[in-house]
Amino acid sequence: MVRTGNCGSGGITALLVPADSPGISYGKNEKKMGWHAQPTRTVSFENVRVPVRNRLGAEDQGFSIAMQGLDGGRINIATCSIGTAQRALDEATEYVQQRQQFGKAIVDFQATQFALADMLTGLIAARQMVRLAASYLDQGHAQATTYCAMAKRFATDAGFDICNQALQLLGGYGYLQEYSMERYVRDTRVHQILEGTNQVMRVIISRRMLMAGALEVIQ
Ligand SMILES: Cc1cc2nc3c(=O)[nH]c(=O)nc-3n(C[C@H](O)[C@H](O)[C@H](O)COP(=O)(O)OP(=O)(O)OC[C@H]3O[C@@H](n4cnc5c(N)ncnc54)[C@H](O)[C@@H]3O)c2cc1C
Question: Are 42 and 25 in contact, with CB atoms under 8 Å apart?
Fold first, then answer.
């Protein structure tokens, strides 16, 4: 993304830049709380020359191209949260049936059953929301962006909460690296930040809702 015009969102152009172009350098691989399978580095551009034929779309159209990509990216991140939450719920469900405390399996405590019920409800609601947003994106629905933002916000919050709750159900073992649960919590935490933070999702949702009217968004 390169500044080609005024200082607003209309003054940005998208270019395809070969990763090994002279002038590109990569920062150190950042140490992160989670997502250790994914390398994260800054990419710096200094006097990189790019031929005009590498331009994506028209000049000054880059911001809207980036925004279009983000809708699908948000579905992607939301789906990562749902998949991880499903796995966390599966593992926690198995664990609470095996672990004995006070003379019975911890699944026999109603508090455990209620936790499982809330986790499953949150998971199903999040999955349905992501599927609805994905179908609107496929259809080119006028409110697809709003739905993608809502799905990303909801599913990533639900995904983190479910993983965190699953960790709690494992008690002290949940906190140990020997079990996967602490990794699920660390890995889903960043989903609330990536592809636009969940606060920024709320900015998008409320702005679009106030522009179009709540009824327009619901239809
Ligand atoms: C592991 C990892 C991988 C990443 N990969 C990529 C990548 O591949 N490509 C890429 O471009 N970026 C990538 N990022 C960057 C990521 O997209 C940004 O970190 C994210 O969008 C948040 O932006 P920021 O860090 O500048 O936070 P800031 O914008 O500085 O926000 C800081 C805080 O202020 C809040 N805030 C900001 N604006 C508002 C507002 N208007 N209203 C209310 N609250 C607000 C935020 O919600 C947040 O809580 C990556 C980040 C991480 C951690």
Answer: no
